Amino acid sequence: MRVLQLLSSGGIYGAEKMVVSLAKGLDQMGCQCILGVFDNMHVESSDVITFMQQQNLPVVVIPCKGKIDCTLVDKIRRCINTYDIGLIHSHGYKTDLYGYLAARSARLPILATSHLWTRRTRFLRMYAYVDQLVLRRFKHVVAVSDEIAREIVDSGVPSAKVSVIDNGIDLAAFRNPCPKVGAEFRTSGMRIVGAVGRLVDQKGFDYLLRAIPRILERFPNTVFLIAGEGTERAKLEALASELNIAGQVHFMGARSDMPNVYASFDVFALSSLNEGMPIALIEAMATAKPVVATRVAAVPKLVIDGETGLLIEPRSPEALSDAVCQLLENSALCERLGRAARARIEQQFSSEVMAQRYLKLYRQLQINLAPTAESELCKI
Question: For residues 203 and 230, what is the distance between their CA atoms, to the nearest angstrom?
Answer without folding.
Answer: 10
